[in-house]
Amino acid sequence: MDAPKFRNPWAWIPTLYYAQGIPYVVVMTLSTVMYKNLGVSNTDIALYTSWLYLPWVIKPLWSPFVDLYGTKRRWIFALQFVIGVAFALVAVTLPGPMYFRMSLAVFWLMAFGSATHDIAADGFYLLAMKQGDQAAFVGVRSTFYRLATLSAQGALVWVAGRWAERSGNVVQGWVLVFALLAAVFLAVGAYHFFALPKPESDRPTTGGQTLVKEFFQIFGEFLRKPGIGLILAMLLLYRLAESQALKLLSPFLLDARDKGGLGLTTQQVGIVYGTVGVAALTIGGIIGGVVISKFGLRRLLWPMIIAMHTPIVAFLLLAVYQPASVWIVGTALAVEQFGYGFGFTAYMLYMMMVADGPHKTAHYAICTGFMALGMMLPGMAAGWIEDHVGYVKFFGWVLACTIPSFVVIARLNIPPEFGKKVDAK
Known about the structure:
By secondary structure, the protein is mainly alpha-helical. The chain has helices at residues 13-37, 42-51, 54-58, 63-68, 72-93, 99-128, 131-167, 170-195, 211-223, 228-237, 240-254, 266-274, 276-295, 297-309, 311-321, 326-355, 360-400, 403-409.
């Protein structure tokens, strides 16, 4: 049976963006917890896992091919099957003597598949949703994307820690986690084969006869956008502070107290991220989407960036006082998750505004490529910085890194009505 041209967005947006978030957070964040459990140093963790951002940085180089060949719908479920196989391969490589190199190689494969999946999923969202509905659902997609993050950092980390405790084998705990991920992702791919709608606009933009011409035309159109310098500054600097804090957050929670960390167990990290964090993120993301659809992006931009950066103060205080109470740590993480869910909504909608046009899929991918570059480069040095100055000075440095984003925000010119939901007459 063919999928309908329109389907209730609640039937596919939550699962699509949950599926989009899982491989990204596994590659970027869950891998840091796993390698920390396996005894890899902070410097190596930050350096090598930050290199895994590269597929998201350079994905604009092949994003036009997603526009030019096949439908976004077909790209989505095919890549979900590829990513499912990659999860299974990680489970196979971990027990071996060369687990670090082999698992990193598979993470590279997963990262390229995930980056391409992002192109198709974001393009499909833009094609299947009207602009007013895009703003209304941006909080939903952001929330489920972040729920995927917290599922990986919460439930899956707890499972790995619990199984390692019961079996006495840390490696086997992580093998179980990646086997579960493989099974779930293959099931998600099968679901989306039937559940995704078939909008009429989801079709190749060319038959391929003018491939080279259209390829360069798409990039040229993006670089000729008015105010491109300020656009690139916004894309690169909005997450400058977060890019460094996020890379060292899990090691900070897991490191022993005499090393400046909080000394939490793997299971405790899973609990505080997967319970308190989920609730705070859900509230923040949904509120962010709702208020933007009501008041517009322009009025909410400053409150949202402040909400996104404020939680860094909480991390600095945690590093200074090193509280032993899991409840205090959980409260600080809840503040971070709420602020992130609320503030990141503005960033996503800004990229939609920049990408609007005939090649919105490719242009949105270019935006996210610059976003990934802004995460990759600062993140690579984060472990080295922390190893040399300690967690207190590191989070102080991260707090100072919020300043450039405020400077850029002050210069942006957002149309007053952009993001507002237009009621049908």
